[in-house]
Amino acid sequence: MHYEFTDDYLTGIEFIDQEHKKLFDIANEAYDLLTNNFINDKYDRILNLVVELREYTIIHFADEEKYMESIQYLHRFSHKIEHMKFVEKLNSINLEKIDANQKDSIIDLLGFLVEWLQNHIKKKDCRLRK
């Protein structure tokens, strides 16, 4: 099972949609890692996913917030708070605990990310539709 970027995730804003597709790619990387039974020690790959997600969301959220500001989007402040909470959650991931229970760590990361895709992108970002 992979996470598919379907039309109901489209905002109609090309650069935002492209950036959202990248978040789906990261979710699919996490899913592939979770289901790969040939890799025993997944710590480095999990760590790479967390770092990639941290770095990418900084770029994406800045781009999205700049766009919302440019159109004077009514809900831009509450939207930015959601972005901040997402970043806080990513930054609160205890990297030492990942090694102790790698499978649960991937499941937690994937659950958090999929929740974001479904409830933030689909329900909040899509309000930006053109």
Automatic annotation (TrEMBL):
<feature type="domain" description="Hemerythrin-like">
    <location>
        <begin position="11"/>
        <end position="125"/>
    </location>
</feature>
<dbReference type="Pfam" id="PF01814">
    <property type="entry name" value="Hemerythrin"/>
</dbReference>
<comment type="similarity">
    <text>Belongs to the hemerythrin family.</text>
</comment>
<keyword id="KW-0479">Metal-binding</keyword>
<dbReference type="InterPro" id="IPR050669">
    <property type="entry name" value="Hemerythrin"/>
</dbReference>
<dbReference type="InterPro" id="IPR016131">
    <property type="entry name" value="Haemerythrin_Fe_BS"/>
</dbReference>
<dbReference type="InterPro" id="IPR012312">
    <property type="entry name" value="Hemerythrin-like"/>
</dbReference>
<keyword id="KW-0408">Iron</keyword>
<dbReference type="InterPro" id="IPR035938">
    <property type="entry name" value="Hemerythrin-like_sf"/>
</dbReference>
<dbReference type="GO" id="GO:0046872">
    <property type="term" value="F:metal ion binding"/>
</dbReference>
<dbReference type="InterPro" id="IPR012827">
    <property type="entry name" value="Hemerythrin_metal-bd"/>
</dbReference>
<protein>
    <submittedName>
        <fullName>Hemerythrin</fullName>
    </submittedName>
</protein>
